Amino acid sequence: MPIHHQVLIIGTGPAGFTAALYASRANLDVAIFEGQQPGGQLTITTEVENYPGFEHGIQGPEMMEVFRKQAQRFGAKSIYETITKVDFSERPFKLWSDNNEYTADSVIIATGATAKLLDVPSMKTYWGSGISACATCDGFFFRGEKIFVIGGGDTAMEEANYLTHFGESVTLVHRRDEFRASRIMVERTKKNPKVKIITNAVVDEFIGEEKMGIKKMTHIKLKDTVTGETTIHEAGGCFIAIGHTPSSKLFEGMLDMDENGYLITKGKSTYTNIPGVFACGDVQDHVYRQAVTAAGSGCAAAIDAERWLAEQE
Ligand code: NDP
Fold first, then answer.
1. 115 CA distance to ligand 1 centroid (A)?
2. pLDDT, tens digit, for every residue of 6-38?
3. Where does 110-201 have alpha helices with state H?
4. Could you tell me the domains of the chain?
5. Is the CB of 242 inside a 6 Å radius of any atom of ligand 1?
């Protein structure tokens, strides 16, 4: 027998938890699928300084724990499973995890986005043996090393600064000579004496060695995008910070999405093309992508779902 809930929320981050908080506080029966990364992207970030209400900042994982507890206080139930298949063709909507089948009157999608990786063959060889996409998770392992960060956005800036707590040096490599990051972050990075910046360069190859069956990256080969010249640099660690891909594959062919896979919502609402299915957070927002905007859209999704459910009665 499938397990039924009035509202099922897929994905936990600021969007999913806020939707869960609002929907459960509106007296709806709500369950939230925590998925493969409970708490979402903020669980792999450092200090969040720009979430209103936390005057002195808060660590990302701690913030998500507060969000979870606040939603649970009003009855939202966390399910530690990943949804692998959905069928929105008829109501109640059907959702499957590896273990169970669920049905719901309404579904809120808050699956977020995941980090993009470089298309360099040797990246796979040294993934986890020098290369990472999460400074907060792995920075500690690179104490005293020469660390590289790839990317020119806010994430790259943030990670480069953070990694100076661990590395002997940090070099930020960006493929253009203009940065996508906000001015304040670029200035902070430029002012940091432990960060060196190389522009107009891309990774050509990760180079390493294998000792007694253990692989380790030791060098990184960069290619100048203007001259084509390559240079080899000693590198103990490399963090890839080149943006994200929306987690929307599950909904291909069912929900409208743009050419990059971001779910399309109608106007200012969180309505998708299927009535009763709503989307919020980074999976439908490639512009703002902030915890606070994700939380705001999670709130909107819960209100949209609540009103839509009331109309169906
Ligand atoms: P962005 O998409 O903003 O930046 C990605 C960067 O990676 C760009 O500089 C891009 O270069 C570069 N890049 C992309 N693909 C490649 C590739 N294949 N090879 C080399 N370089 C590549 O992603 P972020 O993760 O930095 O930021 C996402 C959002 O989150 C932004 O809105 C940002 O403002 C926000 N954010 C805010 C923070 C804060 O306020 N504290 C902290 C972190 C993120 P190019 O510019 O040439 O396209």
1. 10
2. 999 999 999 999 999 999 999 999 999 999 889
3. 122-126, 135-138, 154-163, 183-191
4. 3-114+244-312 (3.50.50.60), 117-240 (3.50.50.60)
5. yes
